[in-house]
Amino acid sequence: MAVCVAVIAKENYPLYIRSTPTENELKFHYMVHTSLDVVDEKISAMGKALVDQRELYLGLLYPTEDYKVYGYVTNSKVKFVMVVDSSNTALRDNEIRSMFRKLHNSYTDVMCNPFYNPGDRIQSRFVSLGRAFDNMVTSMMIQVC
Amino acid sequence: MADAVLFEFLHTEMVAELWAHDPDPGPGGQNMNLSVLESMGFRVGQALGERLPREMLAFREELDVLKFLCKDLWLAAFQKQMDSLRTNHQGTYVLQDNSFPLLLPMAAGLQYLEEAPKFLAFTCGLLRGALCTLGIESVVTASVAALPGCKFQVVIQNS
User: Fold this and answer.
1) Chain B partners of A111 at a C-beta cutoff of 8 Å?
2) Can you tell me the distance from the alpha carbon of B149 to that of B106, in angstroms, rounded to the nearest whole number?
3) How far is the alpha carbon of A97 from chain B, nearest alpha carbon, in Å?
4) Quick check: is B22 in a domain?
5) Is-contact A145 A21, C-beta < 8 A?
6) Interhelix angle for B26-51 vs B116-133, to 10°?
7) Any bridge partners for residue A82, and if so which?
8) Which of A7, A53, B4, B17 could be joined to A16 by an S-S link, Cβ 3.0–4.6 Å?
9) What's the structural domain count of chain B?
10) How many percent of chain A have pLDDT more than 70?
């Protein structure tokens, strides 16, 4: 299960960031921030390589001793970053991919909500604007500690 | 096939409603109405630009994005593809549709030529919104030579 999930806009500011162990949140914010460099590197590498197909899923960005960071970029250059616990070795690539797919679907739903202005933070203050998105992220993050 | 006609009716009502309050608003009012339609199309285009390319692989260059507009976006919105796409390779693209579904019910030929821009403003916004989500700033204008064919000109803004 994910420990931290972040959605970053095209201009590299966070639209949504949430982590489970709520103490030490800053550490995760910092980790997501540093992973943006790796994401940019992968995107520009894909552009230069003469590969026929470009994938949206970026894979493992970098591992640390406690955590692994995965990335995914959409066609609209919105990046999703997920931090998972290293000790949870049962998580396979397919599961990470499906978690990103769910995240992408929920993000698309938020985008299609007429009360959402593109570029705003995704908050669940307004009744159901970000609530569904929040719930979906929660379902991906349970069972930690 | 009833879904296509639902959007056409809605669109016709939108245009009619904006012009109903003041049938002859003068150039200022006219532009205001056209801007309102265009910005509505823009927001819809932004959402479509997020939803439609979801299962597709990443776009590699500008031309891929334009091709996506001509094929997938047009197919989703109007159940047909764009008839032709031309470019001068310097940031200007002309998308031509020889029988645009929103103009089809009106007339074939030169009748209603002055009224046609009202019915194209929303679609211009749609194109601009989709391009904006996909990372391209542009200015989209439309021109009609003879109904129901029309051309959309997309000029990419490079900063």
Assistant:
1) 46-47, 50-51
2) 12
3) 13
4) no
5) yes
6) 40
7) A5, A70
8) A7
9) 1
10) 82
Residue B112 has pLDDT above 50, yes or no: yes
Report the run of H or E that residue B51 belongs to, with start and end.
Answer: helix B26-51
Q: How far apart are CA B150 and CA B142, in angstroms?
A: 7
**pTM, whole model, 2 decimals?**
0.84
Does residue A143 have a pLDDT over 90? Answer: no
Give the residue numbers spanning the domain of B102.
4-17+29-156
Rounded to an integer, the average pLDDT of B135-151 is 87
For residue A50, what are its two tokens?
A: 């003469």
- Other Cβ atoms within 10 Å of A122 Cβ, number: 21
For residue B24, is it within any domain? no
Residue B118 — φ and ψ, nearest 5°?
A: -60, -35
ipTM greater than cut 0.95: no
- Whether residue A46 and residue B57 make contact (CB cut-off 8 A), yes or no, is no
User: Can the peptide bond before residue B148 be classed as cis, meaning omega within 30 degrees of 0?
Assistant: yes
pLDDT > 60? residue B159: no
Q: Which residue in chain B is spatially nearest to A112 when comparing CA positions? A: B47
CATH topology classification for A2-141:
Beta-Lactamase (3.30.450)
